[in-house]
Input
Amino acid sequence: MEKYVVNITDEALADMEAIYQHIAVKLQSPENAMGQYNRIANAILTLDAFPDRFGLFESEPEHSKGIHKMIADNYIVCYVIDPGVVTVTDVLYGASDLHRRLQNRHP
Output
């Protein structure tokens, strides 16, 4: 079984920090914030094996760019697969306009 290196971009880390801050500060629930952060991080770490088990976005241009999406609770982990490497590019709230947010980030 091939193992992939999992890289997380600074943008994806900033997304995770924003999620943590929103839950911890705005919703005043630091314990839940840490639990959510850890669940997303643990889900990301599973991408070291069979990362293609999660499908590509169906919308364009994300599909043509090879952007996969994995659901982690209410969040969508966006990533691309290269030979031997998975790169997590974004972690976005699933109820947001993902297509618009990704276009704004990756024109």
Observations:
- The first helix runs from residue 10 to 26.
- The mean pLDDT is 93.
